[in-house]
Automatic annotation (TrEMBL):
It comes from Mycobacterium rhizamassiliense. InterPro entries: AMP-bd_C, AMP-bd_C_sf, ANL_N_sf. Keywords: Ligase. This is Acyl-CoA synthetase (AMP-forming)/AMP-acid ligase II. The keyword Repeat does not apply.
Length: 215
């Protein structure tokens, strides 16, 4: 998105966040994009602020302020009895009211009592120059309950990055409990029709690999 703004500085860019049950929920308008270009690039990591007439709430936030995104407005359908649309998305609101998404609620991993959001880990790892694509998923662990497995599509398949290299790279940004325990180099990631990673397939692949190694 930053590259788009650099190449097309005079184009008005609008980004919207919503769901089939109701859209839009938030918007990142032209003024927001201009602000990001000259002052606050972190705004581009958000999906904007609530659209007019919409109420937004973060349900049951954790210590980092991350919880399920709830929305209420006349144009939203499938609202629960409590009057809110429970999106199933996890997010956090910053001091200026911008919403940053952290993944899906059912994707959250609880590793030794600590919440880990795979999307956050993926965003960090994807910044490594040797990583073309990456998918992170929670997998069973006898001691911690769950741990993380990372499936990495290398930029150069003949020279995939070493797990130690990726782990050290991620530790610059992430806490130790967010670093994947298992690392797999793969040719491609399983994607659905919307281009999203199918985490259930990654989880099954990990379990199959672990079973093969133990027999």
């Amino acid at each position: 998105l930053q590259r788009v703004l650099d190449v097309l500085p005079d184009v008005a860019v609008v980004s919207l966040y919503g769901q089939t049950e109701g859209s839009p929920i938030t918007s990142l308008g032209p003024n927001d994009h201009r602000l990001a270009a000259v002052k606050n690039p972190d705004v581009l990591c958000t999906v904007g602020r609530p659209v007019s007439g919409l109420r937004l709430q973060i349900d049951k936030p954790d210590r980092a302020g991350i919880g399920e995104v709830l929305a209420a407005a006349e144009h939203l359908s499938a609202q629960a009895a409590d009057g809110w649309l429970h999106t199933g998305d996890l997010g956090v609101l910053d001091a200026d009211g911008y919403l940053r998404l952290c993944g899906r609620r059912h994707d959250m991993v609880v590793r030794g009592g600590e919440n880990v959001y795979p999307l956050e880990v993926e965003n960090v790892l994807s910044a490594h120059p040797a990583v073309a694509a990456v998918g992170v998923v929670g997998v069973p662990d006898t001691r911690l309950g769950e741990t993380l497995a990372a499936f990495v599509v290398p930029t150069d398949p003949a020279h995939p990055p070493r797990p130690e290299e990726l782990g050290s790279f991620a530790r610059v940004t992430l806490a130790g409990f967010k670093i994947p325990h298992y690392w797999y180099a793969v040719a491609e990631l399983p994607l659905n029709s919307a281009g999203k990673v199918i985490r259930a397939t990654l989880r099954s692949s990990h379990l199959e690999r672990q079973h093969s190694e133990s027999t």
